[in-house]
Amino acid sequence: AVEDGTPVRWQYVICRWGSEGSDGAKIGGIGSAISFLQQPKAFLVVIVLPLILFFLYQLYVFIKAFIGVKNSGKRQITAADEELIRQRAIEEYIRLQAEKEKEAAKGPSGEAEDKKEEVKEAESPDDSVSDGNSDNGKSE
Fold first, then answer.
1. Are 23 and 17 in contact (CB under 8 A)?
2. Around 7, how many Cα atoms within 13 Å sit in the side-chain half-sphere?
3. Which of 21, 53, 59, 117 lies at a 20 to 30 A Cα distance from 97?
């Protein structure tokens, strides 16, 4: 029987409050917290918004990990590598400019002299080594 005297069958008893002879323990503030969460705006702020933020954070972590795995095989260029590449490009440019200036200074007659020297070197390679001065006073 309940306090008002209405009989209750055992099939309808869901749970019992406390133990026999005691009225149980009461936690203060739980009822007002549940009432607060039942309001739509409070439910959005307390439950839905944190879930959305957590989902976005996990999405960010997933994308970051995916990109990390995707780029793991690729070599990253460091600042030192960039400087080395830049230095090599400058050296190559300077070397090409020097070659162009030499070709422009030689002109058409310079090419003929180069061919003659190549023929001489091909005919007698030992003479140029033993002589030590095969250009005969020519300057570049």
1. yes
2. 2
3. 117
